[in-house]
Design a protein that fits this description.
With 445 residues, the chain is mainly α. Helices cover 61% and strands 8% of the residues. A hairpin with a 2-residue loop joins β7 (289-291) and β8 (294-296). α2 runs antiparallel to α10, α4 packs across α7 and α5 (53-64) runs antiparallel to α18 (403-430).
């Protein structure tokens, strides 16, 4: 029973960001076939940040009208919307409409906005829902959240996305004393093993799996004998009553008094929520992508923004180690503040190195040395492992503080994502502070 619940929690967490992560890894196949070209990533980044209206609405409702919003119903709606939008992308992603005399991929942009709303809103609904399960399942949920980036990357790898071959396009004689011959190499993307349509149907299937997992979790007996025959959404009132009893005590005469919360503890947990947002700020600005023709802002996760410049072959699939960090947190949950601070400093230092490498692209330090490639790969792994681990531990600690703490944790995470995107977007897309080289013709001294 416990193993099944862990599996369901993992599949539920997988649906949190699988759609948007999948859309980003598919861009090399989408961009050549639509009128927006490589401006599409920039358009998508704006749409994705606009989608934060979803978590903003949920957070405001939680703050001003607590209990008025049916969290379970919201989750059903957003997962259903994500499933439908992913499926519709398979049919209409290439369809265009003339707007102001210019052909635009309206269907692709609108459906992407819906997918972004689903994934952004999951931060303030999926995570608080896990409050209803036993604490150990929260870490499993984070493993699923990591798989939401790993699985689309693996499928895209099988699909053959982004495989480049350098072909001789022209050759000319250079009349000089040496009479040398100059070859012009051109990068050519290889045909995919299956179409983007099939990939979008795969994403829709993953969202459907998430929906089934949530349905089973919602009616699954996981909280002990007293609740074993009641669905989770029926236990909300009892949970609220129990929360109201927390902090109350009886005096000797039988009167009930309310204990005031300890100020240091409140400050500690507010700080953890802020730390979660700061971690996502560091993580989200990096989720921008750029190529030799333009720059773009990524979806949700400061370093992926420039990972194309940092180490192209590895950066696309760097997040494969994120589930590993969650597994480590599952079996080795260290809640020490000193340890978390140390890991945050290490992760931030690794991020600074990646940013420096990206800023020096296309000719960073040790570019022609094998050790340079080894170092940047190890730094990427260190960056993701440390900050992902800290993020999971923060979630586990805040889980002990109740439903409200997890709602605000998710809201602050989305705020960190927004701030990271706003910070990096002008640097990448406007001022072209970061640039990537031609995979076939870049030569470094």
């Amino acid at each position: 029973m416990s193993l099944l619940t862990h599996l369901l929690a993992c599949l539920f967490g997988m649906g949190s960001w699988v759609a948007i992560n999948g859309l980003w890894v598919e861009l090399p196949l989408i961009v050549p076939q639509i009128p927006e070209g490589w401006y599409l990533p920039s358009y998508l980044s704006i749409l994705i940040q606009m989608a934060n209206v979803g978590p903003l609405f949920v957070t405001l409702m939680h703050h001003f009208r607590p209990g008025a919003l049916n969290e379970t119903a919201v989750i059903y709606v957003i997962i259903g919307l994500g499933t439908a939008a992913s499926c519709l992308l398979g049919f209409f992603w290439k369809e265009t409409v003339v707007v102001a005399g210019v052909s635009r991929s309206v269907a692709l942009l609108v459906l992407t906005f819906f997918l972004a709303t689903v994934d952004c809103t999951s931060s303030v609904t999926f995570l608080p829902f896990m409050m209803r399960l036993k604490p150990q399942y929260l870490t499993t949920y984070y493993i699923g959240e990591g798989v939401s980036g790993l699985l689309p990357a693996l499928v895209a790898l099988i699909q053959g996305v982004g495989v480049v071959h350098c072909l001789n396009s022209t050759q000319s004689l250079t009349h000089s004393l040496n009479g040398s011959v100059t070859f012009d190499l051109q990068a050519q993307y290889q045909p995919a093993n299956f179409s983007p349509e099939e990939f979008f149907f795969f994403l829709s299937a993953m969202m459907l799996v998430c929906l089934v997992a949530f349905l089973l979790l919602n009616y699954h007996p996981v909280r002990g004998p007293s609740a074993s025959h009641r669905p989770l959404h029926k236990r909300r009132e009892r949970g609220i009553e129990q929360k109201q009893e927390v902090g109350r005590a009886e005096d000797d005469d039988g009167s009930v008094r309310t204990r005031e919360p300890e100020a240091p503890k409140q400050f500690w947990h507010r700080s953890l929520q802020l730390d979660a947002g700061v971690l996502h700020l560091c993580d989200s600005g990096l989720d921008q992508r750029s190529d030799q023709r333009g720059a773009s802002l990524g979806a949700v996760l400061l370093l992926p923004a420039v990972r194309e410049q940092g180490v192209p072959p590895v950066s696309h699939h760097g997040r494969r180690v994120q589930p590993l960090a969650c597994f480590i947190a599952l079996f080795l949950p260290i809640r020490s503040l000193l340890m978390m601070a140390a890991l945050t400093v290490v992760g931030t230092g690794a991020g600074a190195y990646i940013m420096g490498t990206a800023a020096l692209s296309p000719c960073p330090l040790l570019v022609n040395d094998t050790s340079g490639g080894v170092i940047i790969v190890l730094v990427w792994i260190l960056f993701i492992l440390t900050l992902s681990y800290v993020k999971v531990i923060i979630g586990v600690i805040l889980r002990d503080e109740g439903h409200s703490a997890l709602v605000w944790c998710g809201a602050v995470v989305q705020l960190g994502s927004l701030l990271g995107a706003v910070t990096m977007f002008p640097l990448v897309s406007v001022f072209s502070f970061f640039s990537s080289g031609d995979p076939c013709n870049t030569k470094c001294p």
